[in-house]
């Protein structure tokens, strides 16, 4: 019984670490040379911005949903026309969901470190290619 209590306490602490880490990322939206801003649009044309990691392979631009909070990703699935702002320039793109071998290849090219996966609670990872419009 004591082992179960210890396990439950550790599980609650771990979930707390995940929620805190994800909340702080969402609140502060840290940006650097490896990030860009994606603007997704709802049915009314209202835009919403989110800082995301910029992934490039073979001259193609990609973005990954690596966290549990992923409203921007669901919005891009609902309306695939997005805008990307990088280095002060904004351009329109079409978000294309990756599946199959392309997903596996890009996921392998941009593998996440184990420490990051632990801090985020091992969320499923979804990738999109961003095609210029």
Write the layout of secondary structure elements.
Elements: H1 2-28, E1 35-41, E2 47-53, E3 55-57, E4 60-65, H2 71-78, E5 81-86, E6 89-97, H3 100-109, H4 114-120, E7 126-132
Antiparallel strand pairs: 1-2, 1-5, 3-4, 4-7, 5-6, 6-7
Q: Care to describe what's here?
A:
This protein is an alpha+beta fold. It has a single domain, classed as Pnp Oxidase, Chain A (Roll), CATH 2.30.110.10. It contains 4 helices and 7 strands; from the N terminus they run H-E-E-E-E-H-E-E-H-H-E. It has helices at about 1-30, 70-80, 100-110, 115-120, and strands at about 35-40, 45-55, 55, 60-65, 80-85, 90-95, 125-130. It has a 7-stranded antiparallel sheet with strand order 2-1-5-6-7-4-3. The longest helix is centred in the first third of the chain and has 27 residues, at about 1-30. It is globular, with a radius of gyration of 17 Å. The mean pLDDT is about 95.
Main sheet: strand order: 2-1-5-6-7-4-3
* Low-pLDDT ranges: none
Structural class, from secondary structure content? Answer: alpha+beta
- Tally of contiguous helical segments: 4
Q: Tell me the fraction of residues in β-strands, as a range.
A: 25-35%
Under CATH, the homologous superfamily reads: Electron Transport, Fmn-binding Protein, Chain A
CATH architecture: Roll
The biggest beta sheet is recorded as: 7 strands, antiparallel
What is the number of strand segments?
A: 7
What does the average pLDDT come to? 93
Structural domain count: 1
Classified by CATH, the class is Mainly Beta
If you consult CATH, what is the topology? Pnp Oxidase, Chain A
Helix content: 25-40%
Gyration radius (Cα, Å) is 17 Å
Q: What general outline do the C-alpha atoms trace? A: globular
Give the termini separation. 60 Å
Order of helices and strands: HEEEEHEEHHE
Say what oligomer this is: single chain
